[in-house]
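PT: before anyone asks, these are the final sequences, not the draft ones from last week. 1644 residues across everything. Please model them as a single complex and drop the result in this thread when it's through.
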Amino acid sequence: MRLACPHCGPRDYSEFRYGGDASKQRPPHGTTGHGTGDLQTWHDFVFLFDNPKGPHLEYWQHVLGCRRWFTLTRNTATNEVGEPK
Amino acid sequence: MSKYSAFSLARHALDPDLPWPRAWRSPEPKASYDVVIVGGGGHGLATAHYLAKNHGITNVAILERSYIGSGNVGRNTTIIRSNYQMGANTGFFEHSLKLWEGLSHDLNFNCMVSQRGQVVVAVSPVQMDVFARRGNIMRLNGIDAELLDRGEVMKLLPYLDYSKDARWPVCGAIHQPRAGTARHDAVAWGYARSADMAGVDIIENCEVTGFAIENGKVTGVETSRGRINAGKVAIAVAGHTSHVAKMAGLRLPVESHILQAFVTEPLKPIVHHVVSWGAELFYLSQSDKGGLVFGGHIDGFNTYTQRGQFAKIRDVAECAVSLMPFTSRVRLLRHWGGIQDMTPDGSPFICKTPVKNLYLNGGWCYQGFKATPASGWTYAHTIANDEPHALNRDFSLDRFEKGNELDEFGIGNWTYKQ
Amino acid sequence: MLERRSALAVAHPFAWAALTLGEVRGFTLTQVAGFGNFAADVAATAGALPETSNQAVESNGRTIFRTGPHAFWFVGPENDDLAARLAGKAIVTPLSSSRTRISIEGRAAREVLRKGIPIDLHESVFTPGMFAQTGLHHTPVLLHCTAEQRFELYAMRTFALNVWEWLEDAALEFK
Amino acid sequence: MTFRRLPSGGRIDRNRPVGFTLDGKRYRGFAGDTLASALLANDVTLVGRSFKYHRPRGIMSAGVEEPNALFTLHDGARTEANMPGTIVDLIDGLTARTQNAWPSVELDVMGINQLAAPLFQSGFYYKTFMGPTKGAWMFYEPFIRRAAGLGAATEAADPDRYETRFDFCDVLVIGSGAAGLAAALSAAGGGGRVLLVEQDSALGGGLLSEPEQDGWLQARLGEIRNASNIQALTHTTAIGLYDDNMVVLVERHDHRQPDPAKGQARQVLTMLQAKAIVFATGAIERPLVFANNDRPGVMLASAVRTYLNRFGVAPTGRAVIATNNDTAYAAAFDLAAQGVEVIVADSRTEIPADLQRRNSIEILAGTSVVDVKGKNTLHAVLDGAEQRTITCDVVGMSGGWSPVVHLTSHGGIKPVYNAAIAGFVPGGFAKTHSGAGAVMGTFGLNAAIREGAAAGGGSIAIAAAGGEDRPYAIVPTWMPPRRKGKAFVDFQNDVTAKDIKNAHQEGYHSVEHLKRYTTLGMGTDQGKTSNIIALAEMAELRGLPIEQAGTTTFRPPYTGVSLGAIAGRTIGGHFRPTRRSPLHDWHAANGGVFIEAGLWQRAWYYRWAGDTPESAYVKEMGLVRRGVGISDVSTLGKIDVQGPDAAEFLNRVYVNGFAKLPVGKARYGVMLNDDGIVLDDGTTTRISETQFYMTTTTAQAGEVMSWLEFLLQTQWTDLKVQVASLTDEWAGMAISGPKARAALELAFPGVDVSDAKLPYMGCLDFSFDGVPIRLLRLSFSGELAYEVHLSADYAISLWEHFLKTGASLGLKPYGLEALASLRIEKGHVAGLELDHRNTLDDLGLGKMAGKEKDYVGKALRQRPMYQAPERWSLVGLELLEPEKRLRGGAILFAKDDKIEGHGRGYITSVTWSVELGKTIALALYNGGLKHVGEEIVCAFPLKNELTRAKIVSPHFIDPEGKRLHA
Ligand SMILES: Cc1cc2nc3c(=O)[nH]c(=O)nc-3n(C[C@H](O)[C@H](O)[C@H](O)COP(=O)(O)OP(=O)(O)OC[C@H]3O[C@@H](n4cnc5c(N)ncnc54)[C@H](O)[C@@H]3O)c2cc1C
Ligand SMILES: NC(=O)c1ccc[n+]([C@@H]2O[C@H](COP(=O)([O-])OP(=O)(O)OC[C@H]3O[C@@H](n4cnc5c(N)ncnc54)[C@H](O)[C@@H]3O)[C@@H](O)[C@H]2O)c1
Ligand SMILES: Cc1cc2nc3c(=O)[nH]c(=O)nc-3n(C[C@H](O)[C@H](O)[C@H](O)COP(=O)(O)O)c2cc1C
Ligand SMILES: [Zn+2]
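LR: through. Structure below.
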């Protein structure tokens, strides 16, 4: 597989580190109180995944290169990779 | 005459025209079943067998989208063991190993359960301590385990790299003599044949495409071969767990990742144990056919393609040659992938779901093959009684909400981390 | 008196017909990063900055690499005081000790590098002046093509001796 | 005699004779021979015994598809099993052995298996070996294992060298037959970089066996040589196609006998990234299925032709050619031209007229070979209009051709059935892929050339070959024409037509079940000659069209690849990179003994203190507790955190507050993961309002760095913070012990390091001899201690300076073992406690967490079970039975507990306490410090030990921290 780093351009998959589902919204910082509703939000954010068979928005880091984190859409049914952001 | 034995084999040898009966029928689906099991892998088939055997429930269908055993039960590295240290895992996997020990008899199908022992090679004194903890827990739970020092490992596995050149030294090992391998396909076929004989319908080429859910209760499934009604529906689709559960509106702590596996040309017996390595996840055994069967880590990203990345293939070959330098001249025959249902803590689910009468079995990560008998056993219990067996009570969906993770390997709640 | 010591102090540079392996010592590596318009401030002090992520620029006796969207490496002479001169204008991190600069030269240079680096090193593609941040033997490196048959590899200091050993081993067939 | 070397002809070099041995017997061949052709030339036709039935086997093919003629090559550590003789270049001194037979292939004792053959039908082992007792398989398995397997490997390490490399090209052409040559030339005309790979020892593909096309071939080879932008590699197999056009190539140099001492690799693996790929992989001939079709002397018709034309080896007297298609006639004509008597048995009733032109050949239409009898001589039984038995030297068979679609389908595109050629062709191509020639089912030479030229881009015209293409006709036959006798489909795995019938009867219908139940296609040849026949037979039994039955999945590698080639040089000492501290060379030269810590090599202990770690570390600990020691802590992760929002950022990632940390002060901090589990700890120092110097544990340094980058670049993009790793830039050394300050004063005269100037958790930046020094007053050991950080370049020099100036104080180095033991005495947690399973509270650090502020992990650390009082949390243990031992990994029980189950906790770390004069440990225990003072039992059943210990505070020494503040 080849992934395009938005800074360095297309590179071999072995230069990257995977960062998981990027479609999930991290709860904003500073909102964590002690209530249980909050717990639920965080539970869902950390533990639940859509894990789709098809387009998947995900994080990658060009860890052996410029160390940039970026997102791209990859089709999990074919591994076809889209443009990075 | 359907029982398999040396005698029946001889009779067929003498009379070549005597037809063998089918191992399992291929019936047309009925309109309705008491229990519909989605997924004809090891777990689905075992569940059907134990539903019939332990609970007398036989009006059961297994729906398999392809051929039975087409999933991970047919593509794993066949290691069975019960060296688990965290809470519920210990008893569950030991129960499984005990069932393995009697499985060929139970099924009247030789599953080639080979208790040749598993040796996990430690590469540092610290790792020896970590292994000791595991081994002690095993012993305290009536499970066999031995701690080996370097000299003992040299005797058992003379072909490892003990030279100064080795990147990591062999410090010792933990050994479970009762661990070993089983013939993966036979497990699927044996369970299928047994379930079929008990009256279970095994329906291949039948993909579940949706669930009929009324008032929060499941009443049947939609399939590529039409609607099938069901009193209860049990999911056991391994790598496709999220995909199928989503049809019932469930979002799960599961990600699907590819794990690759490898087999070499057949050789005369040379590796007599299951050998694993503490430097990196790597495990190798020799199949009865003679091929070295081995594997490593997941590739590390979500995918449903059963093809892996070559970079990972290199990692695994590097492990093989570094740990066992003789393998350098052995030729790789074939490599393939399977889609693993990875959970954040590495432990599975066998449980009820928020949808009534819908049950879930999944999240098996690297370990679902060895779990097959106990998984079927406890899942059948859960389905039959609408409540978990003592052995699978902790394999629940809400354990992350509760903070009740079972992190066997100590890698934290991060599915794709290796 | 404190003395400098290279990570390759125990390594043996060599020069064969097809390959020369050596170390470039005595340079100053300054990482310059920042926010917003910092690049303009930096350029005012240090000269024009490169736009592209694969072409190094020589300016004021320094080689400048654009190492990230908001980051640059300045490789200047020993005792370059760039860091001090940029203080307050950008985020400056001196990294001279953190990278070991290995030179690889000769007609076998590209082939030796191909054994570890997953980028296209063809002479029509990776031409003098170009650089890439990539991996060699699982470690990050910056590879700079300084001439048709000469390269400089910036390896992480703590891996440098290992990278050297790796290169030495890779080069053996050209001895 | 059945085969002989012709006095002339072929592509062998008759001026270069080559000697080799088979089973110790000497033979001669020529350069250009394969092992197989040389054996045939020597009339060696029996070369092995079959897998299951131990039937005598000969050479069936002339290529990679060979199922039978497998040899063990070389001796000693270079032993290599299961090599098809058909792809082994003959080299001088080659030693080969036959396999799977004892005492010899002629007299194989296991041949009696043939008598019991009816018992050994496919899958028989699933039906038996189950009794009498539960574990019975363990009794039978060794026999089965010994009987299975083909050749034997050696346990010795491989002495050869392998190389891996990356490469790129514009157009990759796989296969150098007519189609591939045309494609490569045409692609080169476009100006791009063209790579042409051929697994065989020479370019030319099928043309190498067609002397009449040699003119065309030589002309093209000349053009290829002259094209500066074509690189053509022989002995190079494209083994697999991976995502995004990565093709893995393996080039074998075995025939050159490379010298590993000179760095020459036996095999070179290239990970090639190609912009476009042309598949010109040709086709493989299929056998016919008839009784005893596995007898030595029964060969593929095309192989007979190849041995004749390429190697100059011919049957001596008479040949029977059995076919269902046109192509076998070429072999018949060529044999006849050599004076061999040829009888063609063609199962078709109508034979194209142009094939019937030679009257020297007897052609029997509507006739099949149904059996082959005889042991040393072949008697082919023909059945057609009449029954005839013909005594002959060879039976050349052709059941049609299977295009080599393997690589085209590695990416997931299934091949499709083409009834016109009775074979599967590529089911389509990705955008940048194309196919040409026989792989597409295009069997005409000029059509293949045209297709190749087009696939290569069509930029230049490629000359046509001589002669006209003739249409290809086949009437497929799959099933054996007669029921009696073993008719093999998969020769290597001894799978017969009967086995397929059985599998069908038992319900193993899907092609995948058929394969797995019978093992068909699972041998070293991966069913190259058998798969299509088998699935066609199964389709016929099921009454399905072949296209519905489909193929099994083609998987890489196309042909077997030694694991050595894949691993390359990334093995042994180079398995993973070695990371060395800037002080490494000093340790190595001064009695430091190293231990692996992840990728790092760390100084474990020093010889000055002892010759074993056990003796040395205690002495080194004593040094620190009573005097002063120096230790290398350069492996700690070190991160430069800068920017206007740096304080806010750290305040978010650490559980404790960093916003108000004064400039010049350090603080111990703990980070959690989002799930509330402890990620890492370390001290972070504020250098200025906007700059911090963070340290992490050695193990988590990479993880933490990536995590901080992740948060800044993707989640909190509004924060103006930059992070940079300083792990390699800065060296670190700890100066610890009651005399530490004195040591500093001696080392840095004139620098005020008094308690007032540099209090506990203080930081002092100064310059020494022109080199910036960062002096931090931190303590891991619990003693008065400092960490000195400076540019890694000067590390050894400063370290030596310390040793020199501190000599009067007795300053000496201490290693990792002592470092780790000192922290146990102090009750500091480290790797064994930070094992990704523990919460802040488990480690007794709960009080650190900010109540008011938010921080990573705050929400989920409050999950009910994470707060449960019965969680296992950090305690100290003291050994109560001095004659015994405490061990890491021991399981803890309360005094009156039954010793079984999971216990109440376990020991994480153990040490001898120099200070207390006894063994102590850190442990996690149910309920933790609530149990201080209780006696417990430490169980270590692996060594049958039960040891009594007492729960104490984990802060064994100086709990008030007086020493730190001294
Ligand atoms: C390469 C590899 C090596 C492994 N090695 C080991 C090992 O050594 N030891 C070990 O214990 N475990 C191992 N595992 C894990 C183990 O194989 C799996 O955890 C286990 O087999 C999963 O359970 P299963 O057998 O029921 O799954 P599967 O066999 O995957 O069964 C799931 C079935 O569900 C079917 N299905 C999916 N969707 C639908 C649908 N919509 N409708 C109908 N049917 C559907 C699939 O076709 C499939 O047949 C390995 C896994 C892999 C991939
Ligand atoms: N049935 C038939 O009549 C038949 C069959 C095959 C070839 N041909 C004739 O051969 C001529 C050209 O055919 P072609 O060029 O398509 O095929 P070919 O068989 O001549 O060449 C294919 C080449 O590809 C090589 N190859 C295959 N897989 C490879 C891999 N993975 N890596 C490296 N090399 C690999 C083979 O060794 C072979 O040399 C035509 O005249 C065609 O008619 C005819
Ligand atoms: C334990 C085990 C042993 C195997 N041994 C062989 C073997 O000897 N020969 C072979 O061709 N394939 C072997 N395979 C691989 C299968 O052919 C097949 O690749 C695998 O089951 C995955 O299926 P797929 O390739 O059809 O997707 C083995 C698989 C497993 C799980
Ligand atoms: Zn990049």
